[in-house]
Amino acid sequence: MFSKLVRSGFEHAAVRKRLTETRSLLLQGENHIASEDESDHPRSVMTIGIISPGAVSVLCPSLECIAFRDCTAAPLHHTFRALRLCQSVTELSLVGVKFIDSYDLQSAVPRLRKLGMERIWYLRHERETASAPSTQWRLSSHKPPNCRALPRLEHLRIGPNLPDDVFAELVEWLVGTPACKSVSTLEIWQVDGYIPSANKLLEAVGPFLLHLHELSTAAAPTHLHMDLRHNINLRYLHSYIEPFEEAPAQTTLLHFLSSIRSKHLEEIRLLTCYGLLFSTLFEARVAESLPDPKRLAILDRPVFSALKSVVVDVKLGWYAQREDLFVNKMREMLLPWHVRGILKFERTVGLF
Fold it and tell me: Which SUPFAM superfamilies would you find in this protein's record (predicted)?
């Protein structure tokens, strides 16, 4: 328990010395199960109990990165507000965290360069959902937003599993902060309910955005892509595209690419899956998905003149057949880039 470690830190010099040198700290709930990628980013891991306000800042003055995982047993507002004292913290990750309301989140974030949020709950939101599922509440209905927060934020990641209205409220807050003039890297999951708010955030960060990661596990045929017309200095784009088995490319990928206005775009990475659905009519469906050659002209626009690399990352299912057909059709669909010699394919086989 973190409370025991805090006590030990005050009582024992050796423990206090280790805490003083700690740069990265993961506080997690008792039911947390470590994911594979956590092994690549080792942190001091401890189960969270009752955290004394200010203990983190006093015992860990060198702390740069702090993560809260699956801390839903009780609201974290007292602990979180104490993070304002941690002037050295530049990276914060919140996964499965419960707050009293959004104001606790706004008023407590330190001066961050990197912020990640996933599965965030508000107690007030839970109560209102239980009493009136259709109720939507906004920041201004409770306390004024903190418009001075996040003055140095550079990397923002908003993961999946946030209720649509919680995501919308986070965006409402973010667009009113200085973060919109400093964020250069943005990671957002491709969730239909997020799109209107995500586009609002993309418009707000506008020319300051350099790297965009549009993430997804498996997009459905009706999933929409984000609007990139305001991000005129975008240099790197990572996105998910629907498999041919599910949706025609001319109504998904080409429409998405047509929104690009940045003349500085150097790299595009497109992730797609193939072979997850077996169909004897696959060849016919692939043929139907190919766009009219006239529509390929959008890939020859001057806006793509700086493009150096287009990578199609293909996740192949165990039962994938006619991979050659798939790759050839992808080359046809992205023909102008294939002719330029900048189109490459990467393949991974497995279950996805």
Answer: RNI-like
For residue 96, what pLDDT is reported? 84
Rounded Cα distance, 242 and 222, in Å: 10
- How far apart, in whole angstroms, are the C-alpha atoms of residue 64 and residue 344? 38
Asked if residues 54 and 82 have their Cβ atoms less than 8 Å apart, the reply is yes
| CA dist., res. 245 & res. 275, Å (int) | 8
Q: Which residues pair with 211 in a beta bridge?
A: 185, 236
- Taking only the tens place, the pLDDT of each residue in 250-300 is 567 888 899 999 999 999 999 887 764 445 555 566 566 666 777 788 899
CB atoms within 10 A of CB 335: 15
Residues 47-59: tens digit of each pLDDT: 444 455 467 777 7
Listing DSSP states for 91-148 in one string gives: EEEEEEEEESSHHHHHHH--S-SEEEEEEEEEHHHHHHHHH-TT----GGGTS---TT
Between the alpha carbon of residue 58 and those of residues 40, 71, 237, the distances in Å are 28, 22, 41
Q: What is the helix (H) or strand (E) element at residue 253, kind and residue range?
A: helix 253-257
Beta carbons of 189 and 160 less than 8 angstroms apart:
yes
CA distance 308 to 104: 44
In this prediction the pTM is 0.81
Q: Give the total residue count for the chain.
A: 352
239 has which bridge partners?
A: 214, 270
Amino acid identity, position 78: H
Residues 29-77 pLDDT 10s: 654 444 444 445 444 444 444 455 467 777 788 888 888 888 655 555 5
Q: Tell me if 298 sits within 8 A of 260, measured CB to CB.
A: no
The DSSP letter of residue 51 is P
For residue 346, the surrounding DSSP H or E stretch is: strand 343-349
Supply 116's token pair.
């990640």
Q: Where in the chain are the domains? A: 1-155, 184-352
Are 209 and 186 a contacting pair, CB within 8 Å? yes
